[in-house]
Amino acid sequence: MSTSVQTHTSPRLPDRGRVGMTCLIITESAFFSIFVVGYLFYIGKSQHGPQPADVLEFPWLATACLLSSSATIMLAVAGLRAGAMARFSLGLLATMVLGATFLGFTAMEWRGLIEGHGLTIRTNLFGTTFYSLVGFHAAHVMIGVLAMSLVLSLSLLGHVEKRHAERVELLSWYWHFVDAVWLAVLASVYVIGR
Amino acid sequence: MASIDLPSPGTQASTWTSPGREQWTTVLHSWVTTVDHKRLGILYVGCGLVFLLIGGAEAAMMRFQLFFAQNDLLSPQVFNRFFTMHGTTMVFFVGMPIIIGMGNYLIPIMIGARDMAFPRLNAWGFWMFLFGGLIFYFSYLGGDGLYAAGTAPDVGWFAYAPLTGKAFSRGNSTDYWVLGILISGFGSIAGAINMITTTLSMRCPGMTLGRLPLFVWMMLIVSGLILIALSPLTAAQVMLLFDRFLGAHFFDTQAGGDAVLWQHFFWFFGHPEVYILIIPGFAYASEIIPVFSRKVIFGYPIMVGATCAIGLLSVGVWAHHMFVVGLGKGTAIWFAAITMLVGVPTGIKIFNWVGTMYGGKLHFRLPMLFCTAFLFQFLIAGLTGIMLAAAPFTWQLSDSYFVVAHFHYVLIGGLVFTIFGAIYYWFPKVSGRMVNETLGRWHFWLFTIGFQMTFTTMHVQGLLGMPRRIYTYPAERGWEVWNQITTAGVVFQGVGVLLFVIALIHALRRGEPAGDDPWNAWTLEWSTSSPPPAYNFAEIPEVRSRRPLWDLKHPDDPDWKYE
Amino acid sequence: MEFPRPALPLAALSRTSGFVVGALTAALPVAMYAADASSTQTPSIFDPRSTQTTEILAYSTLVLGICAVIFTVVTALIAYAVIRYRARPGDDGREPAQIYGSNPLELAWTVIPVVVVVILALVTARTIVDLQIDERPEGWMPVTAIGHQWWWEFHYPEFGFTTANELHIPLSDSTSGRPTFLTLESADVIHSFWIPRLAGKMDVIPNRTNHAWIAPLETGTYVGQCAEYCGTQHANMLLRVVVQTPEEFERWARAQQRPAVDDPKVADGRATFLKTACINCHTVRGTVATGRFGPDLTHLMSRATIGAGVATNTPANLRAWVQSPDHLKMGARMPAMGLGETDVDGVVDYLITLH
Ligand code: HEA
Ligand code: HEA
Ligand code: CUA
Ligand SMILES: [Cu+2]
User: What ipTM was predicted for this assembly?
Assistant: First the structure.
């Protein structure tokens, strides 16, 4: 480089939180890929017991809840950025409710499978791969809901301010990621797998 | 205009001593609770070296068993446990902590930062690693106690299904293998996230990506590989735990599960893992060779490019560990070809290092000695890798001692040699003291001779048809002589390693003071005091080229003119 | 009958590059020498006795040769740098000229290796296509090999008998005999079938069938062993392959087809055997013993070793085995049956009549 002015300008460095969260998402994606591959690989290889086509319903409502929660969390973040705390809290609450509803649907589905069809993780390869994949996704939804409830309580106590928008945005990244994983799960379990 | 502001030598508390003589409990407390990247780096490397002694002792026991045909020093169970513990220890509790520890210590200082991006996550990562290691070794205390080697895992370091299933592996030995690695794996992932974020977000003014020391570049790529490769292993191990504890059937062949699926999952991790281990070795060599050749690294951009290429290719070659599971012809050809292609960027590196040496003035101090041996040994190791990639050849070589020879050549001849070199290189910075050159040379020659005796001969056993992981062999096979040379080499290696430990302790106690820049080097870590102050730099430096200290020392011909 | 023909002039190539290798690497010739000298049992891959392993060796020697050349060139470069450019005592202390790189050079050492890799990959592809046979060609003799912890079971479907640990196959040179086509299955964990002088490795995997083939060129006994770690006694899962002329093989197979000898002199031992749990795990054709967990004992005495090669098949060893298999092979899947001294004697007397 020729001019000293140029060499002395420091590079504009990316934000730590964003880089860290991106890394986390990459790792988690790799983690889920293995479970998805495992599911796809074992489609139709169960030796006995219920098959996906016999027992799975396409989860329209659950999917609708989860996908729309991506929108509500965006609203919440936008609210916080603008300093509109009410919009922020409402958006966050809506996201949590939608997430929790999703979990409720999963619970109902599992209950039906276990009690109605006797399908458990030990039954056959379908049970094994289904509960692990869907279960890990649900666990991530749960973590997200817990994290949001933490943020919400903090904000009700008045500890969340506009300057925290950056951090809440990171939480929303995580949430979008969980959503994207659901799409992959949906495609492999409820579309391809059936 | 000065292109760098040298900090005033550390008046602040340094890595090693808090001001004044403290009670040992206070010192211990300060180390246990530390979040300082330098102290964590030292802890990582120190623990890694302790595990090296343990893993080495296990190897020595195996070698003594194989000294005679039909020897009965060790029972089959004990032997099987030893090679499992040895391999797992060396990869996960020696290799990983040392490379992460070196990265921890050096990355912030090399890029002019005051700490890692997430210091507390960093401490958490270290303790997860140590906790994993302790769980893993706790296995020795279970079951029948020490003599029968407890319930230590005995399934081999890649733990092929279905041998790991409940049906064939009762008790908890396999669970220790899973949990030890799983938990320490979280630590490695935390370390990788930290290294990436630090490199991307904490650079000092002027430290553009194009000016990062090669060390930092390579650690960045390694960290990326850790993210991509380690969590698939975690996922596969979770599946195995589900099989073992919940009665799931992922790898349960009796319920239609597939044994080969585990191999795909494992090697999808396992192959990138070996590059995760060797690229840091490349990183050390890329710092050491230029300094001791007194020349700038030859072809910096292509070195970065080649490392990226190795990283990319390495996630697409895993099935070369599976040439004998009955791959289809097309698959076998594909994996053979892509594997051989990895030789090209690796070769580029070797040629660039040699290019750096050409026309230089080579000073064979300890770090350079180890790096020269590394060049030569890694060349052999890589070429045996090419032979293994030649699938039909591997129909004979796979799972024989030839493979054992190959991977010890890369892992020791490549990684351990560069680690020794790197420790000798940066020890003065870390401790403020020089290592005794004579002790170091004894270490070098004994270890090199021992290494050659042990692992060169192993190729021969493999070619003569000796499979790996056997605790005994019939006398008529004609392998005994070769095994005896192999075992004899271990004694040399053992003494060499002991001398290394002695050299370090000796240096800590009464080594010559090192000064800030004993090697007349060029990267930022040599601009601060030895050992560096708690916050590394009194003033954050500013750089204008890849070799800030060169610019400072040669104002008439600075590097930035050529960028 | 079809034999796989070398599709490449590999043999010729191998002779030349073999020369290079021989000249360059000290260890290998020594190894070959040791293989010949120390004992005929050494399963050296440099001493192939089948069509497949001969081809593999030719190919391998080519790969070795190429690697040896690369090794020589690069080592010479390193050695030259080390010797020529080392700092000398009377040095003026000035820094040498700083060279930042050179595009032509770097291009050269990218392109040349790429070319080498392309050549290697092509030869590899050809060899794989030639030597990997996944379906049984017309006329080849089928044998099913089943890996167990820690022994081998062999079925001869054409003849309808089963044997263990010692595989007999007919010679198959260009004038007589026929190649053997193996179907590989596992009863428990992964094993690997390997007889270095006759056939490269092929894993034996539960739930899967793999294939291997042997076209042996010379009669004799060849040793190999399980090559994939399979548990405690992986080391003692040895294999013996007996290559016989077609006539001898035919005679052996006919003998194996016959049911077990029923010698009235050992009726007591026979009775003990048949009323003990032995029959749950072992088959003796023509009796009620039809177990399949352990080796078929119908013609036990036609085998030279017991316990998958762990001991020679002598009455003393048989006795030790029946009394306590752990003693000879720690961890073996056969329990000590706790028979009294006389019962053991009787059973062993019976076993040694099973020719
Ligand atoms: C640090 C670790 C490390 C490294 C760097 C490598 C590097 C390589 N490895 Fe190795 N490998 C292991 C660690 C490593 N390996 C381990 C641990 C195992 C066994 C695991 C187990 O089973 O327990 C293994 C096993 C293994 C196998 C499986 C064998 C089997 O079990 O059947 C194969 C097969 O392809 C292989 C190939 C290679 C190749 C092609 C490279 C290449 O990257 C090498 C590239 C380098 C060069 C080629 C030399 C320099 C290049 C030139 C001078 C340019 C000119 C060269 C050409 C044109 C060819 N390795
Ligand atoms: C970084 C990785 C690493 C390192 C450094 C080593 C180092 C050594 N390894 Fe290891 N090895 C592996 C990684 C490594 N290994 C892996 C991954 C496997 C595969 C495991 C599996 O199959 O599952 C393996 C397997 C393996 C085997 C094959 C076992 C088998 O298949 O049956 C053997 C056999 O000789 C062996 C030997 C050695 C020796 C002699 C050393 C020496 O270099 C060690 C030198 C160090 C010391 C000797 C310790 C220091 C000195 C003392 C503590 C003093 C006391 C010592 C004496 C009195 C001698 N190793
Ligand atoms: Cu069977 Cu090893
Ligand atoms: Cu590999």
Answer: 0.93
